[in-house]
Queue: 2 jobs
Job 1
Amino acid sequence: MKRVITYGTFDLFHEGHYNLLKRAKALGDYLIVGVTTEQFDEYRGKVNLTDTLLQRIEHVRQTGFADEIIIEDHVGQKNEDIQRYAIDIFTVGSDWHGAFDSLKSLCEVVYIDRTKDVSTTMLREQNQKIIKLGIVGSGRIAHRFMPEAKRISGINIEAVYNPRIQSAKAFGDAYELNTSTDDWELFLNKIDAVYIASPHNTHYDYIIMALNAGKHVLCEKPMVLKKAQAEEAFALAEKKKLVLMEAIKTAYAPGFIQLLNIANIGSIGRIYDVEACFTKLTSGNVRELRAEENGGSFTELASYPLLAIIKLLGSDYKDLRFESFTDSNGVDIYTKAYFKYNDSLATVKVGLGVKSEGQLIISGTNGYIIVEAPWWKTQGFEVRYEDITRNEKFFYKFLGEGLRYGVIEFASMINRVEKKGYKLTAGDSIAIAGIMERFLDAGRES
Ligand code: C2G
């Protein structure tokens, strides 16, 4: 009996997949089909799947060609499966020609001719409207955004807007965008959604103008520096049935979401304390250090620690105070914020002129969770107990700069009827804006 194995995502199951399975089955007597998990596809750089794993498995099952269906969830698994299932032939479509030659030491490797003119990407484009995205601002963060956002299916970056036309043109040329402009109306006419990557003092006006023009908005952090502005912006988005999302990348990263899950199921008991630190050494005449642009370590960096605190403890704190050291321009270069809740404490530590260990520690009655620096790019964490033999480490993928996770969420929210997510809610962003406002007010009073 000849045993054959093949693998795939089989998203938006189509004729190409059907032909491949039919021909794979014809190569032998028994066919095993490995269907990839979303996590494994994300690891391979395939994001934005349409069908769930169970739907994809069901489509493979319905062809009647698979004698057995397995799940592929990690790199190197093919090597293991071929031995475990005593496979004679490994097969895959010719788009992979040569890619699996290393398996030839274990079994025969056959590349089956791919069916022409049909692919999941083509079908996705027919089914779903591609979101045309425009970028406001063409500075550092916009440059970091581009290589990440370009990988996301379902989104096409169309245009860049900057009131300084030279800067817009240089950016548009570098990334071959269709439109580079200093004309706001022209810019809006080309797009469905905007990513606001301009200095923070300009965010509010752009958000309101974009929402009023019917565009979805993804805005860099800190979204706004006043609670009332955040409330107004989210109310407007809701009224207009548009997505408004703050781009705090950590909130959308798989490792951070899993950290919240593990903390919230009581792994470490009741949470008594959250300590989060983020520092970055910056100098010179840069926006981050300019008083007139609301620079400083708190506005620049505290979004991340505040995210962790609000997600873990909520926003119903009873007391909040700040201690800062400022430079000669009155800009804070080192700040600590102390939160007191009814039954827990939290501390933020941020620095633009002071360097420290960028870790997150969540302390509970049974143990604590430590997320090593840089915790905001959550690649893993450890749950530690009094009895160290129970300690457990968790690892996750955090690809590139991690900006892609926010973009993926943004795209999928736009495609959802109910324009609401849970990873970073309007309430979370409003609470963060409220804390930023209190910090700036405290500075003015002192
Ligand atoms: N395929 C095909 N003809 C098409 C499209 C796809 O023959 N027009 C084949 C692919 O070559 C692959 C299978 O159908 O063998 C599944 O394709 P995908 O769902 O795109 O999965 P893929 O990313 O190719 O997974 O571990 C996963 C495997 O390595 C391949």
Job 2
Amino acid sequence: MDTKMITLDRAHLQDSDFTEAAALLQAGELVAFPTETVYGLGGDALDPSASAKIYAAKGRPSDNPLIVHICDVKALEKLASTVPEEAYLLAEKFWPGPLTMVLPKSDLVPKETTGGLSTVAIRMPSDEIARELIRISNTYIAAPSANASGRPSTTRAEHVMEDLEGRIPLILDGGPVQIGLESTIVDLTGEVPMILRPGYITLEMLSEVIPNVTYDPAVLKHEKQDNIVAKAPGMKYRHYAPKGELTIFEGDLDRVVGKVATEAYHAALEGHVVAVLCSEETRERYARGNLYLVTVGARESEESIAANLFHALRECDHLGADRIFGESFPEHGVGQAIMNRLMKAAGYRIEEA
Ligand code: TXA
Ligand code: MG
């Protein structure tokens, strides 16, 4: 199958820009599209065969449920069998935006879309292209991140082409995404609301609306913990991984830089192709040795790190790096989500400097 790319002009969006994409979705086919978090690989959420195509295109295990994207709060009552008061409060405060809520599913939602679960994850994206696509196609769009399973999520249309060319008919190119990390997932089906995946909307922000919200224990662990069952099935898989072996160093920044520089230098001497994941502030301190320097972002702006992280991991692949050494970042605010993704990308290979 040929994969077509349509580049959209965000300043002048027209309904006709979506004609082809909407027709594909209505025919049960797949369309990749931008959201404010990452690119999504969309299919009609109520069509079990579309969900099957999503799993096949990504090479994703079919027990890993999909997020259903909506453009109108009223859809909550159609897709969920019960909608607790908290869901409306959160929707009012954070939708449209990078927050996904897990609720008990209604009969309308096929089990193929929810990976066999009796709950459904729902999100209203703020990206205008995403919302127009949902509105004009008149569907609910099931969409995981538009990467091949296990690879870093896609934050540019080129990343989607790299992973899914020949596997899907259409990519809508809306340029680089705004946030760069997937949505925060909060599970509202238990006694206490729980964050299953940290994201741009932090625990602190959520607790202003639902004060008793906590992290699912699996989120906070820095090692793989086989005895803690990840409630978001997707969080248990090796994920976000570049092809090279990535090791992250944590601790005092000066020591981290020293340790990364030494390890990278030695690996290069041994003949490895080595990339260093650094920050703008530390880049010039890796002058020694034959190293590729990949800047993730500026420490003074965690938003810049979030926006660039997945691109930087893919950049390491383009450089052919088989060893990658990276700095860690402070875990407050969005830093929690940044470190969550980085840790998974490293397969939890994290060392104290
Ligand atoms: O920002 C995002 O959320 C992006 C964009 C495209 O919206 N989507 C995304 O989808 O990241 P995906 O499939 O890559 O990640 C969805 C995560 C997985 O970890 C999955 O296990 C979890 O959400 N999930 C989905 N439905 C769930 C449910 N019913 N209960 C618990 N976890 C669920
Ligand atoms: Mg994903």
